[in-house]
Amino acid sequence: MLRWIGILLFLLTSCEVYVTPETNVTLSGKYVVSKVRVQPVDQNLSSDFTTDIFESQMPYPFDSFMVDNFFVHFDYSTVHLNQVGVNPGGADMWEIGPHFYWVLNNSPYYPGDLQFTYTYYKSGYKFEPTLTFSIEHDGLENLQIKSKGVWPSKEMGEEIVITFFMTRVGP
Q1: Cβ(76)–Cβ(89) under 8 Å?
Q2: How far apart are CA 136 and CA 112, in angstroms?
Q3: Which of 9, 27, 61, 87 could bond to 82 as cystine, CB 3.0-4.6 Å?
Q4: What's the chain's average pLDDT?
Q5: Could you write out the DSSP letters of every residue in 38-83?
C-alpha cells in the first residue's frame, strides 16, 4: 500500500507542465533610427561597421538619411516613413504613408518578418518597392529589424545585410 502511495505521489509531483512562450509582436509606436549596422554576408571580404550618415542601395527613403533623424511610425496595421514636421494641431506629418504592413512567419520561437509595400515619387516617376525585414528584437522601448539582403554591386557583388536599431520616441 505504501508503495502505491509513493508511486502515486511521485507521478503527481514529478510531472512538469511545458508551456510554449508566446511572441506577440507589438510594433506600435514612433521610432527613430538610432544606429545602423552594415554587415557583409561573406565575412572574409570586409568587416561590419556602423555609421551616422547612412547611404545604401535600398529604395528611398532608406537610401540616404541621418541616424537619429530618421523616423518611422507603426500603428496596429500601417507604417509611416520619414517625418517631415508637425501640423498646427500637433499631429506628426509624414512624407510616406500610411501603407499597410504584415508580420509573416510569426511563431513562438521567431518574432516574424516585417513586410510592407509603399509608394513614392521621384523625378516624376512612381515607385512601389516591397521591403522585407526579419524582426530580431521587439522590446518595449526598442525595435531591431534586419534586411533580407542588399547587393550594392548587383548580383556579381558582395551581399550585405543592414540592421536598423530603433528607439521608441512616442506613442
Answers
A1: no
A2: 8
A3: 61
A4: 84
A5: EEESSTTT---EEESEEE-SSPTTTTEEETTS-EEEE-SSEEEEEE
Residue 156 per-residue DSSP state: G
| Residue 22 scores a pLDDT above 60 | no
Are the CB atoms for 59 and 38 separated by under 8 Å?
Answer: no
- For the domain spanning 25-170, the CATH number is 2.40.128.280
Cell of 110: 521567431
Is residue 113 within 8 A of residue 134, CB to CB? The reply is yes
Residue % of the chain over a pLDDT of 70: 77
Coil/strand/helix, residue 155:
helix
Domain extents for the chain?
25-170
Rounded to 5 degrees, what are φ and ψ at 103? -110, 115
pLDDT tens, position by position, 98-136: 999 999 999 888 999 999 999 999 999 999 999 999 999
